[in-house]
Amino acid sequence: MPRRVTGRKKGSIAKLDAEARKKMIEGGITPLDFLLAVMRDNHQDFRVRLDAAKTAAPYCHSRLASTELSGGSIEPAQPQMTQTLDITGLSEAELDLLERVLEKTALGMGQTN
């Protein structure tokens, strides 16, 4: 028994697409060209221009890829900064003051001795 062939013939979509593109090129303006022309027309209402820009944007700009951070903790990541200070020229009083400031800073960041 011969197998019944159903559905579209191979290449039919490509053929229709090619015909549509040919007619569009012969017509002189594509839908995207029209939207961009409306968007750039300063005599149009701003809302109309904005709508045209929103509609045309996906055809002109690719979407940004989303990224996901992974890790074992659900707590926000804490920035880690390292800086070397030259304290050789400080007096005893200045060193005491620096020590108190650094202790307050460390306590404020959740670090303890």
Radius of gyration, in Å, reads 33 Å
**How many strands, which pairing sense, and closed or not: the largest β-sheet?**
none
Q: Taking all residues together, what is the mean pLDDT?
A: 77
* Beta-strand residue fraction: under 5%
Oligomer: single chain
* Strand runs, count: 0
Structure classification? mainly alpha
> Which runs of at least 5 residues are low in confidence (pLDDT < 50)?
none
Question: Keyphrases for this structure?
Answer:
113 residues, single chain, elongated, mainly alpha, 51% helix
Give the secondary structure arrangement, pairings included.
Elements: H1 12-27, H2 31-40, H3 46-60, H4 92-108
Describe this structure as you would to a colleague:
- The protein has 113 residues and is mostly helical.
- It has a domain of 49 residues.
- Helix 2 packs across helix 3.
- 1% of the residues are buried.
Can you give me a brief rundown of this structure?
The chain has a domain at 12-60. Helices cover 51% and strands 0% of the residues. It is built from four helices and no strands.
